[in-house]
Amino acid sequence: MSTAQLVGIGGAMLLGAMAPGPDFVIVTRNTMLSGRRAGVSSAAGIGLGVFVWAALSGFGVAGLLAASARAFTIVKLAGAIYLVYLGVRALLAARRGAYETPDAAGVRPVGARAGFRQGLVSNLLNPKAAVFFLALMPQFLPAAPAVADTLELSTLTAIVTGGWFVVLVMGIATLRHVFTRTRVRRAADLAMGTVLVALGLRIAVAAN
């Protein structure tokens, strides 16, 4: 792989990662309300999801999903349900508002494992990622790519995406003393929960 190819796909991935979407919302919320560790773990989960989609696209497997309307719809609906689930949890936390008691139902801080799982599942259940990588990968892979070529590009996409979200986490974490205030946390949960539910419903409607 030439330097130009690596720079090209790295730039494309950075622009894609910076576009607002479910991954952005999950990383932002987890960092604001649960701290740097939860945010970085979410970023790592997203990075792994990106690696999987890129590798599957490079090997041609994701093309089967994109070509099957039924499989594509199933994945979209599963992703929509998961986003709505996360959004409803955030809205319930905002309604309860018992942030002074961390063990209260629905408002327990997100741990590293849960943050990683949320980032990974959200990314893997986003069929648009399959379409994105199917369009992107052929532009940078040779006509008959070796396994090493696919893994190299997949690793790069994961590092670029995960790196961007880690930078985002660090920026948000510097202001976490503001986000830990009860009123701000409730407003953040309300806003983020509404966005997640809206994204999930939009994906569900588009799947029908």
Task: Tell me what the structure shows.
With 208 residues, the chain is mostly helical. The chain has ten helices and no strands. The chain has helices spanning 3-18, 22-34, 36-59, 61-67, 69-96, 112-124, 127-136, 147-173, 176-179, 182-207. Helix 2 (22-34) runs antiparallel to helix 6 (112-124), helix 3 (36-59) packs parallel to helix 6 and helix 3 crosses helix 7 (127-136). Mean pLDDT is 81; it is low at 101-107.
Give the SSE layout.
Blueprint lengths: L2 H16 L3 H13 L1 H24 L1 H7 L1 H28 L15 H13 L2 H10 L10 H27 L2 H4 L2 H26 L1
Helix pairs in contact: 1-8, 2-3, 2-6, 2-8, 2-10, 3-6, 3-7, 3-8, 4-7, 5-10
Overall number of strands: 0
- Distance separating the two termini: 41 Å
> Low-confidence runs (pLDDT<50, min 5 residues)?
101-107
Q: Given the C-alpha coordinates, what overall shape results?
A: globular
> What percentage of amino acids are in beta strands?
under 5%
Element order: H for helix, E for strand:
HHHHHHHHHH
Q: Helix/strand-derived class? A: mainly alpha
- The count of helical stretches stands at 10
Helix content: over 70%
* Cα gyration radius (Å): 18 Å
Overall mean pLDDT score?
Answer: 81
Question: How can the largest sheet be summarized?
Answer: none
